Amino acid sequence: LCCGKVGGSLGDLMCQGTMGAGVIGILAGLATALYYEGKGGLKHTLSGLGAKGEGSEQGRRWFVDCQQAISWARGYPSLVALLESAISTSSLSLSMSSLQGIVPASYSPADIASVKGDVSMLDLLNSALPLDLSAAFHPPTSLTPSPSDSEITNSIGGSLAHLHASYLPPRSLPRFSGGPLRVSVDVYYFLSHARPFQAFHMLMRHGPAIAMSPPAHLASLLPMLPSSLLSLPLPHRPAPELTAAEDQYVQRFVRVIALEQISEPTVTAACACFLQLLGIDASTFTLDIEAASLIITYNQRLRPRAIDPSQTVRLFLLFGPGAREVLLRNSGRGGSRRTGESALAQSERKAIRQAVTHLEEATRNSMDMVDKAKASEERSTRLWASVAMFSRAHGEEPSDWYLQRLAKRNDWIGFLRFASLRSFPTSQLVNTLEHFADPHLREHVAVVIALHAHQQQLQTSESETGTLFDIVLAAQKAARPSLRLIRLALTLGRPLLAIIAACFDEIQARIPMVAWLLASVSMSSIEESDALKRIASGDPLLWALDDLANVVLHFLAKGKHLLVQRAFLLFDPGSQFVQYLLFLQAFLQFRFADCAPHLQRFANALNLPPLADALVNNDWQREVAVDHIDKLLWGAKSGYEQSVLLEVVHNAGLSALYTRLYHTFQVLARTGLGREYLGKSAPDIVEVLLRNAHFEEARRFAGHNGMQYLADRITVAEAEHYVNQAKSAGRQWNVEHERINVWKKIDTLFTNANTSGEAAGYFFYDQFGGKGEQTGKEQLLILDQALQWFRRALSSPSPPSSALGKESPVFPAFLTQRTYPPVTSEFMKELESRILLLSVAAEAAAVESSTSSRKTHTGSSKFSPETSSSPPSSMSSHHGVDPAVLTQVVDRLLVKGEVEKAEKICQHFRLVHTEVDILRNMRLLAEGAILPENVPYSLLPKEEQPSQSALSKEALLELLAQQVNQAAEYAAALVVRHKVALRLSLSYQTVCTRDPYVTLEFLLLHGKEQFRLTDAFIECTHLAYAKVAVNIADAFYKALQNHYEQGAAAATGIDPFWSDDDFSQFINLSKTPKDVGSRLLFLSERHIEQIPPAMETELKVRAYFCFRLACSLSGMRNVLGALRDRVPIHAKNRQFKLLVRLLTGIKAYNELTYLFDTLFMHEQFETMLSKGVVAQCTSIEQMEFRIALHHYLERYHPQDTEKLTMMFLAFNMHREMGQFCRTQATEIIESVTSQTGLLTPHNHQRLVTAMGLLLDAADNFVKDRSFKTGNRCLAMASLVSLQVTSPEHPVLNLETSHARKAMSAMSNFQSALIIARAYSLTATSEWIAPCYQQVVIGGNFGYLEELLRTIPNGAPFYSELAQKFASDPQRAGRAANLKRVLRTSNDNFLRFDLAKEFGLDDVITDLPPETMYWKRSRTLGGERSSTGSAIGLSTGSYSETSEKRTQ
Fold this sequence. Notes:
Blueprint: H1 4-15, H2 23-39, H3 57-61, H4 66-72, H5 77-88, H6 121-128, H7 134-137, H8 156-165, H9 187-192, H10 196-206, H11 208-211, H12 227-231, H13 244-260, H14 265-277, H15 283-302, H16 309-317, H17 323-330, H18 338-372, H19 377-393, H20 401-408, H21 412-421, H22 426-432, H23 439-465, H24 468-475, H25 481-492, H26 495-501, H27 510-519, H28 523-528, H29 530-537, H30 545-557, H31 561-571, H32 577-588, H33 592-606, H34 618-634, H35 639-652, H36 656-671, H37 682-691, H38 695-704, H39 711-727, H40 736-752, H41 757-767, H42 776-795, H43 813-816, H44 825-850, H45 865-869, H46 883-895, H47 899-909, H48 914-927, H49 953-962, H50 968-984, H51 988-993, H52 996-1004, H53 1011-1020, H54 1025-1046, H55 1060-1067, H56 1073-1086, H57 1093-1109, H58 1113-1132, H59 1136-1146, H60 1153-1161, H61 1165-1168, H62 1171-1175, H63 1179-1196, H64 1201-1210, H65 1214-1233, H66 1241-1263, H67 1267-1285, H68 1296-1305, H69 1309-1318, H70 1328-1337, H71 1341-1350, H72 1355-1366, H73 1375-1383, H74 1388-1398, H75 1401-1405, H76 1409-1421, H77 1427-1431, H78 1435-1446
Helix pairs in contact: 1-2, 2-6, 8-16, 10-14, 13-14, 15-16, 15-18, 15-19, 18-19, 23-24, 25-26, 25-27, 26-27, 27-30, 27-31, 30-34, 31-32, 32-33, 33-35, 35-36, 36-38, 37-38, 38-39, 39-40, 40-42, 41-42, 42-44, 44-46, 46-47, 48-49, 48-50, 49-50, 50-53, 52-54, 54-56, 54-57, 56-57, 57-58, 57-59, 65-66, ...
């Protein structure tokens, strides 16, 4: 990177501070300059010092602004002095001599030391800059690349092989990270260069993720970086304390570095210092490194070729902190299991003992060298002391070799001193006394040892019987205090000592836990169990998870679950095993409802990764729980406890074993079998169920337990049970009809159970013949069923017949006890021939039984069962059968629709039958084997024979079908299949052989144009209507799905938005609309999350229509129930158009009132009135919907007139709108008239409003062609207008009598007319009083003129008016007005009579002459004798007289 011009530019940029300001830029520039100076390539490097831009071209590239550099370098005196001297120098150049004090004498261009000398310049640059300057100082071609990951195996051996390859590389092995060379400055780098303080600060500054990441070539030797170090680095903690897992990782990390460079004492010392900086005791680490170094030195000195140093390193990596985790990971187990923990502990102990052996051997060699050098014994003592310390540090008993050596030399003082310093046990000292050569000295030392042992025993007893503090203080004097406390806890039975021992990091947490549990019970309880006795007497350091599991299971079996629970809370509070113990506690207390959640939480936690500092792993917890549940299950005292336990464990999903046991228990409970079968295997349970005839339970149980291969075994056993049950019924088995029903029932059983063809076929084949009780018809049925099943076996073969041995678990006993012929084509032909002859015999017998005369000779058509059961070759096709009988047999077969069998009989016996020939030619014609002109003329009617060639194939088939009488249904079905083949563009053979339900699906896609053909196809193929309903529903579902997915209707004939009539024809193809509705509802619920909400809504609407068409109340109730859950979701998603579609589609308005409520609550009333909603409904549907909506508004929102008006306008409800306006106006009028202040402004405005409402009502009534009601509204509006214009006269809301008075009081005729029309007082008689009042009395003849123009004024009007005048006491003064009134009448005779009666002579004088003649005639006749009689003339009498006169 720093070669040539590129390097110059880099130095230029850095000196100017472009890439790094301050002293970093200066140091980078000087480093580059010194690099070139060291290479001899820098002649005028700093020629531009102090004079920017001067000098050569290279000087212009390499310059330093010294004043700016000095300001940046404050705080670095040496660097400032250098720069100042550079300014004052005359040569304007720097040499190596001028950098004395800054560059050390051991300077190498590849590693420039800093001023302080504790880190190289390369370290600073790499840690501070984003660039990789290593490439400038370490060209890639001069270095050996790092091995790739594929070269480093996952095993310990492979890692150590690489470690040995880089053995003893003093400060020369950089780390690589793939590709170009990269030197990382981290903890590994600093410790490898003996800089512990820099490593510690690096860790505290950058965190472990960067500072302590595993080196690539040592990654397999280190455990996983603890997640706690990454989530909470040391700088972020209140105190930089390490957890147990972190402590192990750090010690392992440092241990690997120290062993990698064990030949460098400064590196190992730096590693120990680094551990102490982190607060970790480094004494054991120091002992291990010293021991390894001594062993390697010894091996290299004496056996350099025999023993590889890497073997010693490998040995010391097999024990120590983190060794087990590394071994477990590299062995591929993925985690420490119970079964492997003990093996790892033993392997670790073996490695420690091997290391102790090597150390003793190396130490003895060193002591021999000391002896040869005649050095003092003190040095030998120090050498062997390291061996003793190493042994005790790793829990091994120290070797007594050195004691034996001292004893052989009779050095009793050194013997006692070394034994006392290293705390050798008394028994070991006594065993070494025999090596003293002097017997007196031996006795003296023995006495001293005995006194010392007695004194030690007294001190121990005092400490053990003393206070807790005395015991702890005494235990601290031991080499391993925690181990001493563990042993005291067991000896004294004090569990608290185990808790204190757990506070020491030198011991694993499971050991104090085991000790606490054992110390919590009496010694007699421990003696009862051999396992607990072995654990208590063993070495605590060898206690593994297996031992903890044995202790826990023993205590749980003894009912001490609370004690185990306290142990986990003390030593592993985060363990989920506590949840299992809570489950156990609740179960044992019979709180079954409370125990299930605890076990469920425990099972869920086992599927999560365990915590980093967990005492036990998930596998250990699962195995212990399963072992204990097993004991708990079989120790339960009642079946109820077992059922609850199995149900809880099954629901928690803890183990597949208990799931199977749960299903087994349920089966045993349902079938009434005993609990003694619970422990049997699944196949044995199936056999028990079969023996007790619980076939459905056996089938379900086999499916739950993955034993589908037993399905045929169960079905055939059920068939055998049917046969045996029928035979045991007694007389019923002797009836042919009953036996045939049994065989049909078994055939249906095989079909429903989807039995393999071979098993079912051999079952029927084996039943053929029986014990002589089978008739020919029955035998024919059995063989025919066997033939059909064998055909299925050939089309979809099951295991071959050769596999039907006695060991086969699939087939029942009867298939394994006999040898059956294989299902081959020859076997099938023989079986078909046998069936044919049997059918002829059976039909012939039926024919003969129906005739009155029977043939008795052997040559008749009668077939005996023996003859029919014989092989086909023994039966002649030419003899023994009467052709007439054969013809009758064929006719019977044709009537039953067995055309193929009839053809075979005709072919076999060479019988000519016209209908059979017709049917055969029809089939050949439909198949295309012959042409229409090839059909024989003899088969056609005579009138159609000449035009045969002109007929189409379809017409010819229909013509031939008309000639068939016996098999008319078969012929019709053939024609239908041919039409279907033409419509679907398929061959006739394809239509006949294909699944008819598949053909039905294609027919349905052609839409309603082919409904008749589809219906005929369903009828002729005898399809099950339930399955047809499913096909119809599925086809409609797919059409609807295509519409919503593609945005338009698919290219099929099924319209997803058919009208009700078309959709009714569509679903009636199945004859069971209820099944179609059930399927549509099922599809809408099953795919409710995948389909659009609009599609779901349409499916429910159509399903409800199907149920309504089928009158299925339960189905309609199911649809409405499903809508209850979906309506809130649609409302939440603001899909209100779907709610409206549900309303208008289902039309169950009373049941869906809550939909109206939902739309009102979300202010979506207008959505129901939109044009789209109204347009998609028929007129009847619109009427139903508007009636329902009107009823809802009137019942629940009567005050919301605005919405009522909107509804009336949207649906053109003119009559209802008019009635509504009329009602509103009536309420206003009644409200106004009930008040005393009628003329207030407020009431005036209200009356105006009422008048407008009445006018609107009249307009709507007229639009609805209710003219009479409209006129009434207009009259009422006029009355309100009169009241507004004439407030002095109350005219509103009057009674009839008051209305008449108001009419009389009105001087204006129009006002009176308004009142009359408003109150329906328009009759002529109603105007007598107002006219008399206003005209006769008041003299208002303008009133009279308007009245006469408006009201009919015939003779009754004047008569009643005259009668009114006659009863008036003041008539004398009003006669003149009456005269004027009478003159307005056009009836002169009436005027004459009235004037004569009242003595109005001037009126009589004004009459014309003819009237006068009539007058004289009447006078002469004496018809009127007096005035009184004239006044008493009634209206009726006058009318009669007038009529006579008119005549």
